[in-house]
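User: I'm new to structure prediction. If I give you an amino acid sequence, what do you actually give back? Let's try with this one:
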Amino acid sequence: MYSVLDKDMIEKEIVPFIPLGKRGFVPTAPLTEIVNAILYKLKTGVQWNQLPVNPLFSKGCLS
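Assistant: Good question. You get back a string of structure tokens that encode the predicted 3D arrangement of the chain. For your 63 residues, that looks like this:
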């Protein structure tokens, strides 16, 4: 798995500053994995539809 930042670092430094949505759907993936995917996309420049979903997200959140 390719990790941009450590999971603990994302939880301490980034997730507290993300506002919680009041409308819409509840994400099935943890916010740390969503942030990790966004940072991976920014670092590599890969297109959204080309993201390696299985290595970036844990198995339980994609069902």
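You can read the tokens as a compact description of the fold. Here is one thing that stands out. The chain has three helices and no strands.
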